[in-house]
Protein backbone atom coordinates (compact mmCIF):
# COMPACT_ATOMS: atom_id res chain seq x y z
CA UNK A 1 0.00 0.00 0.00
CA UNK A 2 1.48 3.34 -0.96
CA UNK A 3 1.66 6.28 1.43
CA UNK A 4 -1.35 8.08 -0.08
CA UNK A 5 -3.53 5.00 0.28
CA UNK A 6 -2.32 4.48 3.84
CA UNK A 7 -3.01 8.11 4.71
CA UNK A 8 -6.54 7.80 3.26
CA UNK A 9 -7.16 4.54 5.15
CA UNK A 10 -5.96 6.14 8.41
CA UNK A 11 -8.12 9.19 7.77
CA UNK A 12 -11.18 7.00 7.10
CA UNK A 13 -10.53 5.14 10.37
CA UNK A 14 -10.23 8.45 12.24
CA UNK A 15 -13.53 9.66 10.76
CA UNK A 16 -15.24 6.37 11.64
CA UNK A 17 -14.04 6.64 15.27
CA UNK A 18 -15.21 10.27 15.45
CA UNK A 19 -18.63 9.31 14.06
CA UNK A 20 -18.96 6.44 16.55
CA UNK A 21 -17.94 8.72 19.44
CA UNK A 22 -20.43 11.39 18.35
CA UNK A 23 -23.20 8.79 18.11
CA UNK A 24 -22.38 7.51 21.61
CA UNK A 25 -22.33 11.05 23.03
CA UNK A 26 -25.65 11.85 21.37
CA UNK A 27 -27.22 8.68 22.75
CA UNK A 28 -25.93 9.51 26.22
CA UNK A 29 -27.22 13.08 26.09
CA UNK A 30 -30.73 11.88 25.20
CA UNK A 31 -30.96 10.14 28.57
CA UNK A 32 -29.73 13.05 30.68
CA UNK A 33 -32.23 14.53 33.12
CA UNK A 34 -32.24 16.14 36.51
CA UNK A 35 -34.76 16.03 39.32
CA UNK A 36 -34.90 18.04 42.51
CA UNK A 37 -37.30 18.65 45.36
CA UNK A 38 -37.70 21.64 47.64
CA UNK A 39 -36.33 21.24 51.19
CA UNK A 40 -39.76 20.48 52.67
CA UNK A 41 -41.02 18.64 49.61
CA UNK A 42 -43.66 21.15 48.52
CA UNK A 43 -42.50 20.90 44.93
CA UNK A 44 -40.45 18.60 42.76
CA UNK A 45 -39.22 19.31 39.25
CA UNK A 46 -37.65 17.45 36.39
CA UNK A 47 -35.58 19.04 33.64
CA UNK A 48 -34.45 17.51 30.36
CA UNK A 49 -31.06 17.45 28.65
CA UNK A 50 -31.19 21.13 27.72
CA UNK A 51 -32.18 22.14 31.25
CA UNK A 52 -35.73 22.94 30.15
CA UNK A 53 -38.47 22.19 32.66
CA UNK A 54 -40.15 18.88 31.76
CA UNK A 55 -42.33 18.25 34.81
CA UNK A 56 -43.35 20.04 37.97
CA UNK A 57 -45.30 18.57 40.87
CA UNK A 58 -46.85 20.64 43.64
CA UNK A 59 -48.04 19.05 46.85
CA UNK A 60 -50.96 20.48 48.84
CA UNK A 61 -48.38 22.13 51.13
CA UNK A 62 -47.39 24.38 48.19
CA UNK A 63 -50.82 26.02 48.36
CA UNK A 64 -49.99 27.44 51.77
CA UNK A 65 -47.09 29.46 50.35
CA UNK A 66 -47.49 33.02 49.14
CA UNK A 67 -47.23 33.33 45.35
CA UNK A 68 -43.86 35.12 45.42
CA UNK A 69 -42.36 32.60 47.82
CA UNK A 70 -43.68 29.71 45.75
CA UNK A 71 -42.21 31.24 42.59
CA UNK A 72 -38.80 31.64 44.28
CA UNK A 73 -38.94 28.07 45.51
CA UNK A 74 -39.81 26.78 42.03
CA UNK A 75 -36.91 28.72 40.50
CA UNK A 76 -34.40 27.56 43.10
CA UNK A 77 -35.50 23.94 42.81
CA UNK A 78 -35.39 24.09 39.01
CA UNK A 79 -31.88 25.56 39.12
CA UNK A 80 -30.79 22.71 41.37
CA UNK A 81 -32.07 20.19 38.80
CA UNK A 82 -30.39 22.15 35.99
CA UNK A 83 -27.05 21.98 37.80
CA UNK A 84 -27.48 18.20 38.00
CA UNK A 85 -28.05 18.08 34.25
CA UNK A 86 -25.03 20.32 33.68
CA UNK A 87 -22.84 17.91 35.63
CA UNK A 88 -24.07 14.94 33.59
CA UNK A 89 -23.60 16.81 30.29
CA UNK A 90 -20.06 17.79 31.27
CA UNK A 91 -19.19 14.17 32.05
CA UNK A 92 -20.45 13.00 28.66
CA UNK A 93 -18.84 15.85 26.76
CA UNK A 94 -15.51 15.41 28.59
CA UNK A 95 -15.42 11.80 27.39
CA UNK A 96 -16.35 12.88 23.86
CA UNK A 97 -14.30 16.06 23.43
CA UNK A 98 -11.47 15.69 25.92
CA UNK A 99 -9.84 18.77 27.40
CA UNK A 100 -9.54 21.71 25.07
CA UNK A 101 -11.28 24.75 23.62
CA UNK A 102 -14.43 22.83 22.59
CA UNK A 103 -14.95 21.52 26.13
CA UNK A 104 -14.22 25.00 27.52
CA UNK A 105 -17.03 26.34 25.33
CA UNK A 106 -19.45 23.70 26.64
CA UNK A 107 -18.37 24.41 30.23
CA UNK A 108 -18.95 28.17 29.82
CA UNK A 109 -22.54 27.51 28.76
CA UNK A 110 -23.49 25.21 31.60
CA UNK A 111 -25.42 26.36 34.69
CA UNK A 112 -23.05 27.51 37.41
CA UNK A 113 -22.63 25.10 40.30
CA UNK A 114 -22.35 27.39 43.28
CA UNK A 115 -21.23 24.70 45.73
CA UNK A 116 -23.35 26.55 48.28
CA UNK A 117 -25.37 24.34 50.57
CA UNK A 118 -29.09 24.55 50.02
CA UNK A 119 -31.29 26.34 52.53
CA UNK A 120 -31.76 24.52 55.81
CA UNK A 121 -35.43 25.38 55.93
CA UNK A 122 -37.98 27.51 54.13
CA UNK A 123 -37.61 30.43 56.56
CA UNK A 124 -33.90 30.68 55.86
CA UNK A 125 -34.54 30.39 52.13
CA UNK A 126 -37.14 33.15 52.08
CA UNK A 127 -35.25 35.45 54.44
CA UNK A 128 -32.03 35.07 52.43
CA UNK A 129 -33.08 34.37 48.82
CA UNK A 130 -30.48 33.88 46.14
CA UNK A 131 -30.47 36.51 43.45
CA UNK A 132 -31.57 35.00 40.15
CA UNK A 133 -30.24 36.73 37.07
From TrEMBL:
It comes from the Bacteria. Keywords: DNA-binding. The keyword Cytoplasm does not apply. InterPro entries: YbaB-like_sf, YbaB/EbfC. This is YbaB/EbfC DNA-binding family protein. GO terms for molecular function: DNA binding. It comes from Saccharopolyspora dendranthemae. The keyword Metal-binding does not apply. Pfam families: YbaB_DNA_bd (PF02575).
Amino acid sequence: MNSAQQWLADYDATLARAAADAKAASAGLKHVNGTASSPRGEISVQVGPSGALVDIRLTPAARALEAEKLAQLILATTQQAQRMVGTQVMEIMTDYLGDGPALDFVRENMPVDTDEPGPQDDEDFFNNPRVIV
